[in-house]
Specification:
This protein is of the alpha+beta class. The chain has 25 helices and 22 strands. Strands 1, 2, 3, 4, 5 and 6 form a 6-stranded antiparallel β-sheet that branches. It has a 5-stranded antiparallel β-sheet with strand order 8-7-11-10-9, sandwiched between helices. Helix 16 crosses helix 18, helix 19 crosses helix 21 and helix 23 crosses helix 24.
Length: about 600
Amino acid sequence: MNSRNPEFTPVDESLFNRVLLTLDIAVLERNEDGSAFHLRGLPPKWWHLCFGLAEATTLDSNRCSPFLREYLLSPHPVWENKTGEIERSGPWTESEEQGGTMTLEATALSVGSKNLLLIERLGSHFEHMRDIVQRARERMLTEDITTKSYRKTQTRLIGQLEASERTKDDALALLQHLGITALVLDEREHVTFVSDRALEMLGLGSNDVVGQKLERALPFQEQDRQLVQHLLDGSSRTGSGGPFRLDRARPQWLEVEIHRDPSHPDRRIMVLHDRTEIHALRQALNEQASFHDLVGKSPAMLRVYQLVRDVAEVDTTVLIEGETGTGKELIARAIHFSSARKQKPFIAANCAGLTDSILTSQLFGHKRGAFTGAVNDQQGLFEAAEGGTLFLDEIGDIPPPVQMALLRVLQEKEITRLGEARPRKVDVRVVAATHHNLSEDVVRGSFRADLLYRIRIARVQLPPLRERRLVHSFLSQICTATGKTVDDLSPDTLRLLMSHAWPGNVRELKSAIEFAVISCKGRHILPTDLPPEIAAVPIAPSPSTWIPLSGQDEKSKLLAALSDAKGNRTEAAKRLGVSRATFYRRLVELNIDPR
């Protein structure tokens, strides 16, 4: 440990060691011939459980698992070529001296002339996710085996029906005997027979089904009913589709196979498979793959997710900045439920458009008789969020007197109800959000600089919709949920989506993609599949002029953008490179009449 190379000796060694212990990572340096790896800094607490005493400074490959030993001895281009990239080993399991096991992952990288090896212990969250995925795989495998068994039985059954020319009663008795979930439809699509197994699966009695028209016996959702009707009208001997949703008090998802009755071509045999459990499993797996209801896999959003994890570990105030509709409250909830305060309340308050007295009473509470209408003592949101998180949305809109009171609360950790003189201690984490540029508001004098510095200790900037690759993420989610297969969007469809203003940001986009998937009849979404308000708008060419909003004469630039866009405020906002909400707000603040 005393012979550490100066190139790797931090300026503050104690800080370096605290970082290593906090991250729970071991850092090792590979010597020139690759025969040994030496620890740099303090080892994590779990190190001696797998690799010897905590005082050991060299990794003993003889104490390693075969996986790690092979990984250390294998050639690594990142060490040979000094590419600046990293190579991950993937998870493996090491045995502990006490007889237990732990899951680890190694990363090879080079820094300057040195080759480094990082070893990280994967925690309980990884184990929990692995158990969920393993259980899901086992259930899917079991379902697949069951499905194959059913299909083999059905194929054998249909073959026997076609070959033997048995009577209808014999065929129905065979259906009952084999336990197939089947219905028989006559030429008018009325149910003439239903197997006991089908009645049991549907939770219905024979009188509820037999003699009824199919759409009454099986009330599929409208779009699914049309697809089932298409299968019934098909000219082929067999057809299948689904899963389709039964519109009942407790939704049920069915996969349907349609076979022509060999002895009566106008009649149909409908075989049903219950896929409700698989649909629920898909939803559960999809929820596990998301990050606190946040979506998006673009580099910008992945950086936001990592920043949320980092911010959640420290108990300080946070400022979330982004356009309206970009998910600022979701980010605040993600920070809260990833933090040590997750078992305590999360309370959200919108500060926009409230007067001084109402907002002060709402935040800090009031005493009976403090003002007209105060008939009872009332605690404020700070007290209600005790121990948890208070989310203050649109903090840039709070009046100056309330800004001063809020600053005092953040500094002193105590509030005073209206009408009282005795302060009350509070333990609340404040997460604020705004679509304003608060630095500009400070320059204009509408926001206190000291409050800005107090709430902006940690900072999360949400990218607008135009910078987030959400289309394919939503497409994958919706296809999984509906069971439909849609591969991609046509180029014209993508251009339409890119040219739309998206005033509703993420919510509007998800709704549009869901509409398109439901309407799509092929494997690619066409412009005609989009909602009318999007499909009917011609693809706008790129604007010839882009006018930056910042600068001294902002009013002139707003007026020039309106003139260039012939009074179209949405188009003017696009030319300025700002959201429509921001553009409207600046018109009001600068007293500009857009007419």
